[in-house]
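Review form for a predicted model. The reviewer records the input and the model, then writes brief findings.
Reviewer: anonymous (R2)
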Amino acid sequence: MINFAKENDLSIHMHFCENNQEVEDIKRAYGVESPVEVLNKYFKPTRNILAHVVKVTDDEIRELSRLRASVVHCPISNLRLGCGVCKVPKMLSEGVNVALGTDGQGSGSNLDMFDTMKFTALLRKRYIRKSKKYG
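Model under review:
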């Protein structure tokens, strides 16, 4: 699959760093310090479309930018599953392309992009308010 994508200049879509268990599983399975190392080793130079990307550090976000990865923010799914919230402002400031997604009926409750836009806006307002209050 990866070679086919590389040969045909295709993107690869995957769920990535959605929760702590997934991050630990990747580290253990591939013997890496960071899941982003797997992207560098196996998926470069494909254009990766990564859903969720909740459990990443600021350094990993900078590396995602260098890899020209796109992130699909799925706020309703992430809130419903309790796995955290994507660092959208940090990603945007680092030049990562961020899109919105629903993650499907099973974990997102619906496929309504207007709900996704609403949740994204509400989360950002909370983030802005919290950062101003706490510095």
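Findings: The longest strand covers residues 11-16.
Further findings: The CA atoms of residues 125 and 131 lie 10 Å apart.
Recommendation: see findings above.
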